[in-house]
Amino acid sequence: MPLNFTAIDFETANNSAASACSVGMVKVRDGIVVDTAYWLIKPPLGHDAFLEWNVRIHGIMAVDVADALLWSEQLPDLTAFAENDVLVAHNAGFDMGVIAAACAASYVPTPSYDYLCSLQVARKTYHLDSYKLPIAAMAAGFEDFEHHNAAADAAACAAIIVHAARRHGASDITELAEAAGARIKRVGSPERGTVPA
Length: 197
What we know:
By secondary structure, this protein is an alpha/beta fold. It has a single domain (5-187), classed as Ribonuclease H-like superfamily/Ribonuclease H (Nucleotidyltransferase, domain 5, 2-Layer Sandwich). The protein is built from seven helices and six strands; from the N terminus they run E-E-E-H-H-E-H-E-H-H-H-H-E. It has helices at residues 52-58, 71-82, 92-106, 118-123, 133-139, 150-168, 173-180, and strands spanning 5-12, 20-29, 32-40, 87-89, 113-117, 185-187. It has a six-stranded mixed sheet, with helices on both faces. Helix 5 (133-139) crosses helix 6 (150-168) and helix 6 packs across helix 7 (173-180). The termini are far apart.
């Protein structure tokens, strides 16, 4: 099996996991980046306040997303890009929580994806003082990127996974997870495309 996956990263408007205001995605095929995507998102009503703290981190303000699609409107584009890939994110619990919470707040079903956390992989691959994304990415040879830009963060995450797979001699995501002692988890319903009874 080749090293295929989609790296994903979200930025949020506030402390609510449902407040996604941007997404970056990087598609990897056989260990090589073949496509990228980035867009702004208008958070669901009730989760759409932009806190100064968050704005200071990522620079996105309410005015920037005024004409953006709502989460429910852009979700088909997200799933079309990710296809049936395993998703990869740094501190993946946060990003998968965004997917689940934004879907719940938008009254749409949560899409089902297997996912792997690049933070967990990095901890078993490198010996670092910190495993924050910029530090782990530097260990993978991916430097000088715009941290907290969702597209750049997704690219950094992808670089960590590709580098870690080489280091562990893993040919695909499953082998990498096993070699790094990391679990592939799932967001959404157990079987993609099925509706719970």
